[in-house]
Here is the input.
Amino acid sequence: MAQPTEATLYVIPGSHPAMVARRMLELKGIPYKRVDLMPVISRGALRALRFPSNTVPSLKIGERKLTGSREIGRELDRIRPEPPLYPTDPDQRAAVEDAERWGDEVLQAPVRRILWNVLKRDRAPLRSYAEGAKLGVPIGLAIRTAAPIVAGAARMNAADDETVRADLAALPGQLQRVDDWIAEGVLGGDPPNAADLQIAASLRLAMTVDDLRPALEDRPAGELALRAVPDFPGHAPPVLPPAWLEPLRAADGVGA
Ligand SMILES: N[C@@H](CCC(=O)N[C@@H](CS)C(=O)NCC(=O)O)C(=O)O
Here is the structure.
């Protein structure tokens, strides 16, 4: 079996799919070098490095270059089968792959939009999301000059008020879906599978946002997030309009 010689993971601080790849590498016991990129600027850097696409996570492992949390999960299972990220039973694997796809294609984007909307309102928490990152410039300078990057990222991710308010209204149904998958045994095993990591990273990022945390923390989805992704840097104090959060308050039982 071919063993990876060297692994380098390209991330953006605070990126939830990048956290998926980090946890996969950790669980597999594969040592790697982490390269932190600034959002927006990351696109040009990854293009110049000739990755298949220009988003994070992107991973160079041995001679292979991969982009995408799901692609990375499959490659890591191929080169280092234990512990498996995908079940061997075909039906169980199909269920895990469905949940993983949903985590990538449905849950990731609204959480990303909510965070950029939050940071557009208050840039101060940016520093906390960059904790431990090496951006090539002093963190304080990177943060002080980040206004155009935050504005650009919010625009590129369509983190406008109308979309984010709709995202918040949809979140309770999405949390219920995760709770249901946990009850069915698709999610929540030990060690976590690829879908656990995919979904937990998004929920864990959501839990760094004070406006969202109460809706997550006392339910199976929140427990999964904390277990599968114990450490996620960042903390954003309340900043969203209270009326936008009413659907979440109803879901967490406060004011229901
Ligand atoms: N669905 C992809 C999403 C990748 C993605 O969109 N990553 C974001 C960071 S969370 C990114 O690279 N954005 C580029 C940018 O902000 O310029 C995956 O799971 O790998």
